[in-house]
UniProtKB/TrEMBL annotation:
Main location: membrane
Localization: Membrane
Keyword check for Transmembrane: yes
Domain of life per record: Eukaryota
Membrane topology summary: Multi-pass membrane protein
Keyword Kinase: no
Protein name from the UniProt record: Transmembrane protein 216
């Protein structure tokens, strides 16, 4: 009787071993590192955008600005938000669906985002220290995401071997 009870357990164990080996050889090519970077940057971008808006109004009330310069800086800050949101959304979609097209468009949008960062860090009328730090952190995140995104795009563009 004791030997009869062991046989079903051995069958279950063999079945579990076969399923474990089948799941080990998956063809998932999306990048966890890239997804974590995008997720962290999405949270940081929201904080960054509201900090830029707050600093814009702070500088406008304290520092002497010409009207056209102030309007231009507001337009640049407002243009940053949708470009960054689309870039992060397409990067997420391209990574999770393993579609190199969305990932490539996300990488293309990294260049206007970097240009906006360069403007905010260097070419603004007045740059506060906290603003330079915030822009520097965001710029480093964009550069790292772009480098990792290029590697992921190259991986996704290859055929499945």
């Amino acid at each position: 009787m004791h030997g009869v009870a062991r046989r079903p357990f051995k069958r279950v164990l063999k079945f579990a071993q076969r399923n474990d080996s089948a799941t080990m050889a998956s063809n998932v090519r999306s990048s966890l590192l890239y997804q974590l970077l995008i997720h962290a940057h999405r949270i940081y971008s929201v904080i960054f955008f509201f900090a830029l808006i707050f600093l814009y109004f702070y500088k406008g009330s304290i520092l002497p600005y010409q009207y056209h310069v102030r309007v231009l800086e507001l337009l640049i800050i407002l243009a940053f938000a949708p470009i960054e949101a689309i870039r992060l959304s397409w990067g997420t979609r391209g990574n999770l669906t393993e579609t190199p097209g969305f990932l490539a468009f996300s990488l293309l949008l990294s260049f206007p985002v970097m240009l906006i960062h360069v403007y905010l860090a260097i070419f603004q009328n007045y740059v506060l220290l906290i603003e330079a730090i915030l822009v520097g952190i965001s710029g480093v995140l964009v550069i790292v995401e772009t480098v990792v995104g290029l590697a992921v795009c190259a991986t996704l563009s290859k055929g499945i071997s």
